[in-house]
# Entry
Amino acid sequence: MNQKQSKKADTYSSGFYVPDAQQKQHRSSPRMHRRRKGCLTIVLVLALATGSWMWYRSQVTAHGDITPSSLNAPFSILHPISSLEARRTEQATWGAVEAQNPTAMVHELTLEDAFFRRMTTKARQWQVVALATPKQLTAPLDGDLEVTSPFGPREHPVIGQELDHLGIDLVAPLGTSVKAAERGVVAWEGRKWGYGNCIVIRHSTHLASIYGHLSHTNVHVGQSVSKGEAIGLSGSTGFSTGPHLHFEVRRDSTPVNPLPLLASSSGG
# Structure
């Protein structure tokens, strides 16, 4: 009788029901199970995302000669669906470009022009806002300049259609040192289908220069360069029929003839 009263005293205290420890542990198990399941799900999602990212980077590295290192179509967090659709369209364009489809190649050059318009006006503007716009540029190559393709309309040597040539082509044997035409900041460095390996340098908020078809670059985005500093080596990457330097100057994103701006040049 005393033992039964003792059990009742443990279970009921002052008229209130108090569950024993075993019951409490049993009832909390489903909650702990859900927490563990939620944590495991988060870990699996993170692992999957990390693995997918590592696979994507490995593919980019393995196919660096096919897939440009930067997309022409920028990704917008505010418009993710349209951004992804634009990138899928661009991937299809790259496939057509690889197959030497003239229509796709012209389209790619149009995309690249839009890309460089952004790079020469919006990229890292805070770093060049204090630089005065130069009135004259130094030659990007040593010695006299020999122009093989002038600025303006021409028949594209690869595509075979008449297109505007947005810069000038200069004679430069493979591996010739290419120099910055004026001090500034590297706004972009990478590979494009048409321009090949190229560098964009902002000289002020209004003026920028582009160096295309390079075989090698030795600068990085955000780097400050001085006038005449070696930034890379000439080559024949991109839409090119042989080693040369494509030199382009843009004022407020619009291509202008570089020859009048160069301190010393000679046509050929």
Observations:
- The CA atoms of residues 117 and 253 lie 5 Å apart.
- The chain has five helices and 14 strands.
